[in-house]
Amino acid sequence: MRAPLTDLPLVIENVALDAGATRILDHVSLTIAAGPPTLIIGPNGAGKTSLLRLCMGLVGPSAGRITWGGRADPTPVRRAMMFQRPVMLRRSTAANVGYALAQAGVPRHARAKRSAELLERVGLADLAGRSARRLSGGEQQRLALARALARAPEILLLDEPTANLDPAASRSVEAIVLMAAQSGIKIVMASHDLGQVRRVAGDVVFMLRGTVHEHGAARDFLVRPSTPEAGAFLRGDLVI
Fold this sequence. Notes:
Blueprint: E1 10-19, E2 22-32, E3 38-41, H1 48-56, E4 63-68, E5 79-82, H2 93-103, H3 108-121, H4 137-149, E6 155-159, H5 167-182, E7 186-191, H6 194-200, E8 203-208, E9 211-217, H7 218-223, H8 228-235
């Protein structure tokens, strides 16, 4: 029998990304394997979002190579991405999830049950009939997570999903992310919140000026950063 297709490990080898004459990412090498959440941190403009877009296959590298489960084909097999400001479709909460299920190839007869399960999972079952655009910011983020989970991803890429939320809404999103990780989904999340790193991360990728400065266990990074720039970032100093 043929082995099932997988997107893990995700291997980035000496990758560069250019936008015109500007180099966005430079000599990035990284291996992302199954396990606890990987958090990508760094100051604004460090290249976090660009790295996630490369991981998803939305953009191709200007140099270097990316493989997913040993494949160079960037077509997503079992990965999904949630953007910092996801767009809500002009339809109900449940219909937003139903649309995502249809895009994922779930048969029509199975969508209602699966949609209800996903909304229960993210705490929105009672709001299934409400217009998605009338949800609060935190509720919209949870709905965006439900839509991403509709793809049954092996890798879930999250671009600062709590950046614009209050602490209570942030913790609700984090709880869903941790439940997804515990179910075996590999979480790769960009964040600027060191408290979130402590609560969620298994390992940390610290980026600065389009390069990976450190990659290691979160507990080691938080206590003993190996570069002066990472130490300054942890202290809250300006790092550019």
